[in-house]
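Aim 2 progress update. The chain analyzed this quarter is reproduced below.
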Amino acid sequence: MHSSDVFCHYERTHWRLSDIDFSAIRRDLVRPEYVTMARSSVMGESNVIAAVHGFLNEFVDDYDFSSFAVVWGYQEVQHHNAFRAWLRELDADVDDAPVEAMREPYAPGTTPCATLATNIISELTVNHVYKAVAKYVEEPVLQQVLLNASRDEAAHAREFIHYCRERLRQHPEELPSVLETLYVYTSDDRIKHPVSMFKDNLTELQDHETIDTGLDLFLEQIADAGELEELQGKIRKTFAGLTDLDLSSNSRVRRALAEQLA
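Predicted structure tokens:
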């Protein structure tokens, strides 16, 4: 099984939370936007339990992917705890109530391929943002957490791509749902993330940082000019490789979708 190879690779190469000396935080280098980004990241990563629950329910007939989902979930919980550990050293940890509100699982996607496609976009987005924010921050411990998490997200994206490709090979009729997912997440001038798309109406999140808080701050204060277009282009290129279609622009995505539905 592919998940067995992934597990062995992660076991050899993955970092540990205990490797990070949170007592070494340079408080003199911490800026308010660093705290905001970390708190936003905690909330984004807190959705992992709901996501694993959803994966295990939706892919009940796929042991291989389900096994990967459990390993993926462990690493995402690690990210959540790493950002919280950094915040705790600064007496800026998030409250438990909004985290607990994220527990409810997602409803199944329109197809299993759509679910996998959504997570490809999620991993590529967070990989890009974490890596860019790591270059921006000057506090070295937060920078280490961001770089570790960013590398993990890149590895996760590769595996979701693998499982989506395999699913499409067996179920080519699900291709339109993949194209529709791509269009939904890359068709306007803001960064969209599944957590905000599905959990933005929770009353427990009112007056609290969410993943959107960090993504908006990233675009407003941290991102270079053209970075949104770079991210969206990276996502479209990934889906072009996955589907063997020309998806280099929104109009081409729409055309490809229309052709598949015709």
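Residues 2-7+27-195+213-261 form a domain with the Ferritin fold (CATH 1.20.1260.10). The chain has one domain: 2-7+27-195+213-261. These observations will guide the mutagenesis experiments scheduled for the next reporting period.
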